[in-house]
Write a structure and sequence with these properties.
By secondary structure, the chain is an alpha+beta fold. It has two domains: about 10-135, Gcn5-related N-acetyltransferase (GNAT) (Aminopeptidase, 3-Layer(aba) Sandwich); about 145-295, Aminopeptidase, CATH 3.40.630. Helix content is about 30%, strand content about 30%. It has helices at about 20-35, 40-50, 55, 95-110, 125-130, 170-180, 190-200, 250-265, 280-285, and strands at about 10, 55-60, 65-75, 80-85, 115-120, 135-145, 160-165, 210-215, 220-230, 230-240, 270-275, 290-300. A twelve-stranded mixed beta sheet has the order 1-2-3-4-5-12-6-11-10-9-8-7, with helices on both faces. The longest helix is centred in the N-terminal third of the chain and has 16 residues, at about 20-35.
């Protein structure tokens, strides 16, 4: 450990059995800042499929109660550090302790940059990050639509056909995602086998919510949705390959997906997006009827 916890606190790695208690800490932290939270145990467990909990996570306990949690994840040359402290235990140095341990793990793995996040309204977290040498580098939106009637029917340009994902589409779908998002800030392609394990073999994988738009035999656009995340139908990724952009395919895909969720009794639909997305995605989502529900801020620190 790179620093000491205050007297009366202990630490150990997280385990899957901790998901309910950790989720309660995350929800309490969110609610203390913005009055609401869309975090769920299912989302946490899904994220942990990419994490070695034994090596790269910490829970902090006091008198048998879990009061803080942190996790480390390697992303190219970056260390992604995520941490939460129950609002009843802030001001005791637990957040700084979690960051220090995450940074120490990153240095052990010779990573060059540490990255962490907070809600945009969280001035306490911002002051902590800045005091420890972090600077703001990016903002992200959680966008939302709540339908009270079926959405408008999508208008498909002539010559395109829509289908849902089939097993044989995996390699082409994966390649289309990598091509469409190659210019995105911090985008990192998973190896194909890892992508299949994480996406196609995910517990909530539903191929009828993965949509592909083709012109001839070529994938022109795609959308991957999950049945639910944070209490809403979830648009995980939507993309249009460069040769087919500015033809209305992205908007048509969104409206089609909104209609499918509405038909399934899921009128609340959400997604996450880089506020500075180079293709102007937030404007597309607004045209589809979505609004910004909340904003998160990414911070970075060079590790020397």
């Amino acid at each position: 450990m790179s620093s000491s916890l205050p007297n009366g606190f202990g630490t150990r790695p997280a385990t899957p059995d901790d998901a309910p208690a950790i989720n309660k800490v995350i929800v309490a932290a969110d609610e203390a800042v913005q009055g609401s939270s869309d975090e769920t145990e299912a989302d946490l467990l899904d994220w942990w499929r990419l994490v070695d909990l034994e090596q790269d996570s910490w829970v902090v306990e006091q008198d048998g109660s879990l009061v803080a949690y942190g996790v480390f994840f390697a992303h190219a040359e970056h260390a992604e550090l995520d941490g939460f402290v129950h609002p009843a235990k802030t001001g005791l140095g637990l957040g700084a302790w979690l960051l220090a341990n995450g940074e120490a793990r990153a240095r052990e793995r010779e990573l060059l940059v540490a990255r962490t996040w907070c809600l945009a309204q969280d001035e306490v977290a911002r002051k902590l990050f800045e005091s420890l040498g972090y600077r703001e580098v990016r903002r992200y939106y959680r966008m939302l639509i709540e339908l009270d009637a079926p959405p408008p029917a999508p208008e498909w340009p002539e010559g395109f056909r829509l289908s849902t994902f089939e097993e044989d589409d995996a390699r082409a779908f994966y390649a289309a995602v990598n091509e469409a998002f190659a210019d995105e800030w911090s985008f990192l392609s998973m190896p194909f086998k890892q992508w299949v394990e994480h996406r196609v073999k995910a517990p909530d994988f539903d191929p009828t919510l993965w949509f592909i738009v083709r012109e001839g035999d070529e994938i022109a656009a795609f959308l991957r949705a999950d049945p639910e995340r944070g209490g809403a139908g979830w648009v995980g990724v939507v993309g249009v390959r460069k040769p087919w952009r500015k033809r209305g395919l992205g908007l048509a895909l969104l409206l089609h997906t909104f209609g499918e969720f509405y038909r399934r009794g899921k009128p609340r639909i959400a997604l996450g997006v880089d506020a500075q997305n180079p293709t102007g995605a937030p404007r597309l989502y607004e045209r589809a009827g979505m609004r910004v529900a909340y904003e998160a801020v990414a911070f970075e620190k060079a590790l020397t």
